[in-house]
Structures are given as C-alpha cells and as structure tokens.
Design a protein that fits this description.
The chain is an alpha+beta fold and 508 residues long. It contains 19 helices and ten strands.
C-alpha cells in the first residue's frame, strides 16, 4: 500500500513552517485561523475532499505548536547568551571554511559561562586553527546573535543561533572520541586533497565541488558564471548526483544479486547516507538521500514506491528536526525543482516518447528522446523554482536550457571519472575528469558571457504580475472544466506574462 498521506502531511508542515518563519509573530493568527477552518470543515458535510482538508488543517495546527516549542526552548534559549563575554567550551564539528579575512568553523558547545549548554556556534578566526575535527576548544569570546537578515537566513537553517570571534588564545585539547561525523569529515578532507593531487587548476576545484559540494576552491567569478548559466545545481550534491552514483551502483549490484533483491537496496541506502554525510548533510543531499532510501527500501520489500510521497516524507523529516530549514535557498530550490519533475514526469515521458517514435534509427531515436527528456525536465524544474527565484534570489538564468543540454553527458561522466580516480589505476580517470571538467567550465564561461544570460527579477512589477498569474490560473481552473482548454489557457497566460515581463525588464 502506498502511503500517499505522507505527501499531504509533509507539504502542509513545510508550507506552515515557511509562513511562520517569514512572518514573525504570526503563530497565533495562523493557528486560530486553522482551528476555525477545521471547525467549519467538520460541520460542512457536503464539502468535497473534506477529509484531506481536515488532515491538512490538523497538520497546520501541529506545525504551529511545534514551531512555538522549537522557538521557545531552542532558539530563544540559545540567543539569551548573545551579548555576553564569557568562557566557551566546545567541539569543532566542521572542516575550516575559508573567507577573505580568515576561517570559519562550526562549533558544538558543551559549556557556556560555566553552564551546560549544547548549541551550535559559528566561530571565526583570522588564523587557521591547529586542530582536528571533534577536538575540544576552550576560549573566551564575545557571543553575538544572528539578527541581521543576511546571516539569519544562512545560519538558522543550519541550526546555528550564535556567532563568536576569537577573543583570546584558544586552548585545544586533542580528543580521542571519534564519532561517525569525524569519519565523514575526514573522508571529505581526503577526497578534496586527493582530487587536488591527481588533477590541476580550476578543473580540480570543479571536480571537488561536483563530488563533495565544497566550492571553497572556486573563485567568486566562476561561481557567478555557474549562476548566470543556470548550472549551479551541478555543484550541490542533490538528486542528480545521488541518481548517478547510488542508482548506478544499485543497477550494477542487481546484476549479481537477482535472488537476494533486498541486499542491493540495503547496501545502496548505506552508500547514499554516507555520501550525504561527506557532503556535510546539505539540504539537497539529505532530501535526495531520504527519497532514494524510501524508493530503494520500498522496491526491496514492498515492490513499489511513490515519488511524491517520498518527497513529502523527506520534507517532513527535515522540517521537524529544524523548522527553520525552510529558509535555506537550497532547500527551497531542491524541493521546488523535484516537485516540478515529479508532477510533470508523466507528461514528459509521454511527449518524449511521442517525438522519438517518429525516428526510424534506433540510436538516433534514443539520443533524441534523451535530449527532449532533459530539456523538458530542465523546463519543469525551472518553472517550479520561479517563486523562489522571484521572491528570494531575485534573478533567473536564460541559459539554463542550452547549458543543461550541452552538459547532458559531461556531468555524469565527470562524476563517475572523479570516483574512479580513487582506484589504484586512477591516472586515466583523472585525465578524463580533467578534460570533461574543462569542457564544462568552457561552456559555463561562454554562456555566462552573454549580456542577457541572467535577468534580474528583483522588481515589484515582476512579483505583482507573478501573483496575478497565480490568481488567474486558479480562476481558470474553476471556470474551465475541460483539461485541454485549461492547459491551453494556462500556457497562453504564462506566455503572455513572460513576454510582458521581458519587455518591462529590458525597458528598465
């Protein structure tokens, strides 16, 4: 049995947490409104879909309660230390992140001012600290909150509510405790050092970014070019990377374990969890890890799985651990893009099959189908990411389609060859990875060089017209009962709005 309610519950919690995080002090308003609507729903017996609406409203109420508890007993309890100059004892739980002025670390405190306090702290040092992951560090520092808007949206999703700067000489105590997180960090460090040794230049930095999500080696101009060309997703461990690595391994294991069908699923689940750990458990990596886990275990034990349900379950788990996770752009983009691909997958497959069936040659038919599928997937992901790009990022790449088509086979080849460099005969894969990464960089720089490659959407008129389109489409859904007429009207409405916005943007 497919537990589709996980999708309803997960999305209800996620949207509620997003509203509560964006509009501070709205807990009471949203919870009271949800209770009132639930009471009306219970008495409106003729209401269509009354059961789903009731479950969704219950989820909204539970999300408000959980958000209040987390804010009171975790966030507010941590920020009460802000502004104090005190002694801090903590463990280093991250690799150093380089900045222009020094190094950033993530600490996990055990004591603050002599009190037992277990919180994550962002720690800045002008010099590289001579310490290993999970070593204990003791120092006196001024603690700060994360009230300003820029850092708040970055730190809150990571569960970091305090900042500190090196106030005095820190005392490092070497730790013999080696938890699982230590081995994840050392594996990532080894991967970064290994790829830097077997490859050269910017290509090595790109290979590191693609395999581990660590972009510290790339300069700001290159990162901006990836943003302008619409290829930023290749540098964040996500569903693309998990599908290539984990699902490739799963298909290989299935060739040898046909009688023991559950074994490949268990092995690949552990691999996906380990890969997410090496990437630092980023939002996109955790989302894809959870989705693949549900799919693999479902296929192994229940013979089927459901993508929309898996996405909702992943969203539910991530947001219950930290309700502020919804503020992370990678969370928003990853879930929006995946939702678009899942909802449109049926139509994408049907259209790509219809186009490829007209071609007689088998090899050419496969190639055309792959290209059409990739183009439609990129389009669906970009359309569903529009709300995030409009209201949070403030810009959209117009080169996402040619960029994804030109790197259609290059990205998987770069990932696979980067992994094979860790084998004893890794010189050949390293040369292949160097060449492929060089090709990806050339495509990225070339597409980003066009003046119209990236369009800023940080204009009020664009946001207003987007909200107007949503309202018009919702109205059309109620007026037009025929699905073909509805789809045609939606396409015409969106096309007219896009053209109108481009004219306004270029005139501005």
């Amino acid at each position: 049995m497919i537990l589709r309610p996980f999708a309803l519950v997960g999305f209800s919690f996620t949207l509620t947490f997003l509203a509560l995080s964006l509009f501070e002090g709205s807990v009471l308003v949203i919870s009271v409104s949800a209770v009132a609507c639930l009471v009306i729903c219970l008495f409106a017996k003729r209401l269509e879909g009354r059961g789903k609406i009731a479950v969704s409203l219950l989820c909204v109420i539970c999300a408000c309660m959980w958000f209040s508890l987390h804010t009171t007993f975790v966030y507010k309890d941590a920020v009460r230390y802000a502004g104090s100059n005190t002694q801090v004892t903590a463990r280093i739980v991250s690799l150093p992140e380089r900045s222009e002025k020094g190094w950033f670390y993530t600490l996990e405190s055990s004591e603050i001012g002599g009190e037992k306090a277990e919180y994550k702290i962002s720690f800045f040092s002008r010099e590289l600290v001579d310490a290993e992951p999970y070593d204990e560090i003791s120092f006196r520092a001024e603690l700060y909150g994360i009230e300003d808007s820029q850092s708040e949206s970055y730190y809150k999703p990571k569960g970091i509510y305090l900042q500190s700067f090196w106030h005095s000489k820190a005392e490092i105590t070497k730790s013999t405790d080696r938890p699982l997180g230590y081995y994840f960090l050392k594996a990532k460090e080894y991967a970064v050092n290994h790829l830097g040794a077997v490859m050269q230049g910017e290509e090595a930095d790109l290979a590191v970014a693609m395999l581990t999500g660590d972009k510290d080696g790339l300069d700001d101009e290159t990162v901006d070019d990836f943003k302008r060309s619409g290829l930023s997703h290749v540098m964040a461990v996500s569903g693309l990377h998990m599908s290539i690595i984990v699902m490739g391994l799963y298909k290989a294991l299935m060739l040898f374990c046909r009688r023991i069908r559950w074994l490949p699923g268990i092995v690949c689940t552990l691999v996906s969890f380990g890969y997410a750990g090496i990437s630092g458990f980023s939002m996109s990596a955790v989302r894809s890890c959870l989705m693949i886990t549900v799919m693999l275990l479902g296929s192994a034990f229940f013979k089927r799985s459901e993508s929309l349900n898996s996405l909702g379950l992943a969203a539910l788990i991530i947001t219950l651990v930290n309700p502020f996770a919804v503020l992370d752009w990678s969370f928003m983009l990853s879930f929006s893009a995946t939702l678009g691909i899942v909802l449109c997958s049926k139509y994408i497959n049907a259209l790509s099959c219809r186009v490829s069936e007209k071609i007689k040659f088998r090899v050419l038919r496969y190639f055309v189908r792959t290209v059409v599928t990739t183009a439609l997937i990129s389009l669906a992901a970009t359309v569903f990411c529009l709300p995030v790009t409009l209201f949070f990022i403030g810009g959209i790449s117009l080169m996402f389609l040619p960029a994804n088509l030109l790197t259609l086979y290059a990205v998987p080849l770069a990932l696979v060859s980067a992994i094979f460099t860790f084998l004893p005969w890794g010189a050949i894969p390293a040369a292949v990875c160097q060449a492929v990464c060089g090709f990806i960089l050339k495509v990225t720089h070339w597409l980003a060089s066009f003046d119209f490659a990236y369009v800023s959407t940080d204009y009020t008129v664009v946001k207003i017209t987007f909200l107007a389109v949503v309202a018009v489409v919702a109205l059309e859904r109620f007026i037009l009962k025929d699905s073909r007429k509805f789809m045609l009207s939606v396409i015409l409405t969106v096309a007219f709005t896009v053209v109108m916005n481009f004219v306004i943007l270029f005139l501005v």
